[in-house]
Amino acid sequence: MAAVGAVSYTGLPQEEIERRYRLVREAAERDRLDAVIVCGNEYTGFEGAVTYLSGFVIVHRYAYVLLPVDGEPSIVFPTEARYVGEHGTTWIERQEFVDRPGDWLADQVRGKRVGVYGMDYVMTVRDYAPIAAACDLVAWDVPFDHARAVKSELELASVRESVRINTEGFWVFLEHFEPGKTEQEVLAPCEEYFVSQGCGRWTMDMVLDGPNGGALPEFKIAGSRRFERTDMVLPSLEIAGAGGHWVEVSRAICPGEPNDVTKAMFEAYEEYYDAARSVLKAGATAGDAHRAVAKGFHDRGFHLGHVTGHSIGMTMIEFPKIGETDETPLQAGMVLSMHPHAIAQDGQSCLYMQDTWLVTDDGGVPLADLPMKIYDGTESR
Asked: For residues 90 and 105, is the Cβ–Cβ distance under 8 A?
């Protein structure tokens, strides 16, 4: 391995690579593990952990990284994945192509205690079976995410670039938004812009919309429905730039008058935004943050469709979650996606806007310069 300060042939500073391995190995040693297996697949947002530890971007199929506490890492591919990714982009020297990665990994970790990132959602059953028979497997999603939750300055630069792209994507959506156009017609220019900025297929963009100044709470793939002047439209924009760091930034659009329920939800959104500035600071907990940002919604009798936020990085959703039962301490340098999904009691109106925040010693910093408001479609930069 090259000396600290050198640059890997993939372009990532060797110091950053060694930092990542050190953080994961320290957490593994704390949990009495001998090695860590990191799983990734092509499902949107589930490939990032492999990229984080190897530099390899999964284009198709799946891959594993094996990181021993002592010893050099390996990256393992199923044989059919030999030409579905640029294998030269990984900095890991040992690359294995095998018919069944689980059999190969089982031989490497036999008799050991091994933490697995992705055991609940990502690892294939055919690979799990032989590995589980060979060693003591530990589900290790949360500790792995906690180990990588504080971002380096290099990672934060990648996050900020993704935020720039995503914020511009909202303006593109707003510029093309017009009653009479379809959901597809308005979202398509956003996707074109995102691809032009290096996002590739790292986008997961949807819409929530509905009539009479209130959006329905279901997320939808953009379709042929035509927007009307009285609609409330909530684009959900989630992307990663070329650096691979996911972000979420978006706002509501209503060319007419929001209904009274939506107006009350927006008042709660203003309170959440102010609360986030003060509570998203080092020393607070994820539960503290949830309770602070959820208060305005609960006080008005609204449900929250899911957790109010979560850590975000090279995987679309990372731990800690910002939820009632998670008391993980926040640390300066964490990046959090916040998106309270406010839903009316009758389920006929919702409000869902997204921001990516940086945790600092003094409080939360929103990384996008997008005013917190309901837009009417006439605004410009």
From this structure: no
235 token code pair: 């684009």
Q: How many CB atoms lie under 10 A from the CB of residue 311?
A: 25
What fold, for 153-375? Creatine Amidinohydrolase (3.90.230)
Cα four-point dihedral sign 118, 120, 126, 131: positive
Of the candidates 206, 258, 196, 260, the residue with the CA atom closest to the CA atom of residue 230: 258
Specify whether the CB–CB gap between 345 and 160 falls below 8 A: no
Fold of domain 14-147: Creatine Amidinohydrolase; Chain A, domain 1 (3.40.350)
User: Average pLDDT by consecutive 10-residue portion of the chain (381 residues)?
Assistant: 44 94 98 98 92 95 97 96 87 96 98 97 96 98 98 98 98 98 98 97 96 96 97 98 97 97 98 98 98 97 92 97 95 98 95 98 98 96 84
Q: What confidence score (pLDDT) does residue 6 get?
A: 54
Q: Which long-range CB contacts under 8 A does 78-84 form with residues at least 24 apart?
A: 84/59, 84/60
Q: What is the rounded CA–CA span in Å between residue 263 and residue 242?
A: 37
pLDDT of residue 307: 82
Q: Is 71 helix (H, G, I), strand (E, B) or coil?
A: coil
Query: For residues 37 and 222, what is the distance between their CA atoms, to the nearest angstrom?
Result: 36
Question: What pLDDT was estimated at residue 10?
Answer: 56
- Joined tokens for residue 17: 């690579």
Distance between CA atoms of residues 35 and 67, nearest Å: 6
Report which residue type is found at 267. Answer: E
Give the DSSP letter of residue 217: S
Whose CA is closest to 108, among 173, 160, 37?
A: 37
Cα gap 265→186, rounded to integer Å: 25
Q: Residue 140: CB partners within 8 Å, gap ≥ 6?
A: 31, 33, 36, 115, 116, 117, 119
User: Is the Cβ–Cβ distance between 209 and 233 less than 8 Å?
Assistant: yes
Q: Where are the domains of the chain?
A: 14-147, 153-375
Tell me if 101 sits within 8 A of 73, measured CB to CB. Answer: no
How does strand 318-322 pair with strand 246-248? unpaired
